[in-house]
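Before a colleague's protein record goes any further, I have to sign it off. What it holds is a sequence and that sequence's fold in token form. Would you go through it and say whether the fold makes sense for this chain? The record follows directly below this note.
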Amino acid sequence: FVRGDHARVERCFIRDGAAEGISIRGSDGVYRDIEVVGIDGDNPMDYYFLLNGHRNRAERIVVYRSPGLSHLGHGICIKPVGATSTQNVVDGFRVVNTNVELQFAGCSENVIRNGVITRTTEPEWSTALTIANGAHHNLFQNMIVSGSYAGVVFNDWDDGAADESGGDAVDAGHDNDLINLVVRDASYGIFMRDQGSAGVARRNRFIHASFLDVGELFRVRRGNEGTELHHCVIDGAGGFAREELGFRVASDTAFVGCNVSASGFDGFSGYAESGTTRSPPAFLAPGDPRPDDDALDGADDASALHPEAARDLYGRERTAPLTRGAVEYVPE
């Protein structure tokens, strides 16, 4: 447990921390080169890297959960205990067989960037990136998600810690931006999951995302409104949406300047659609988000939506002709 402000923890290895591997409550701290590993099948870890407070910086964080543990775990998690957790930055991470998760209405203005989430097994309902219980106005940038049941999950449940935190809201997350996100080899790209509470996912934006070889772009089991996809690439998807429990992809969902080359659908008729292209792209290798030709060129400048959209997954400045998806095409 780390309690207090201005803490500094570096080059730390934690194995089988039971309830919590490392739990941080404080502000203006620095946490670098920390690895948290859970392999104990008798008492599997709950929270691996739990961060609460303001203006903390975490760099080069590794979380590993052994496949087959009975608890899916919470990998890198920001979840306010008290009033709020804001302006924290997690920069550089690798998460294996668990997730990155932001929860509660007091969780806002945080930045999660430059990371990889990988699952070597895919139990049903496993997630990679979870936005839940009112988390809002956070930035997720430059991330690659591979092998998860669902790439991004918007969810709402009665957490049970609401009395302590004061932050659990009937809300599945709103006004979050996801820039240069790659989701590949997942059953679903975006999952509006039901877990007992009726919160709606609202006004979340995907900018320059690449969905590669997903089973379906959406699975919808809760209310949603105002989702936006700008200059995204959907390649190899088997279908548009699996809609259940009477919920549908909301009619005000916007698809702006996206490229679709999917076996299960070829556009977004009936939605707020503009500038859709249908050019089969070439990539350097299967599952590799780097284009091998200019088929995805022609995107508009998205930096007006968010200034971080001016650079691609690898931090390179986007220059005309701009490329759809997470990676800018750079001719040899």
